[in-house]
Design a protein that fits this description.
The protein is built from one helix and four strands, in the order ββββα. By secondary structure, it is of the alpha+beta class. The chain has one domain. It has a four-stranded antiparallel sheet, with helices on one face. The longest helix has 22 residues, at 61-82. The protein starts with 22 loop residues before the first strand and ends with a helix.
Length: 83
């Protein structure tokens, strides 16, 4: 599911809710992403302006990094076509 910032379904629960064990895997002016080891999978979350816009899971930390880069590429391409 892709949630956009103007989506009325986004609540205060979606705001930056990061575990102390989460690892920052991406930081830029617009987006930050964190991954957290849940023992059976890695959960990753992407935030834009401190609001969660996408989350997912992967089997490894490296796979989380690749998934986040893939989603961020999609977001960036989508923004270019929207202009």
């Amino acid at each position: 599911m892709i949630a956009f910032l103007n989506d009325p379904a986004i609540t205060s629960d979606d705001l930056l809710d990061i575990s102390s064990e989460a690892i920052a895997i991406h930081t830029s002016d617009t987006y930050t992403a964190y991954s957290e080891d849940l023992d059976f999978m890695w959960r990753w979350r992407i935030y834009r302006d401190n609001k969660m816009v996408q989350e997912g899971c992967s089997l490894t930390l490296d796979a989380s990094k690749r998934a986040v880069q893939h989603v961020l590429h999609f977001f960036n391409v989508s923004q270019l076509h929207a202009q």
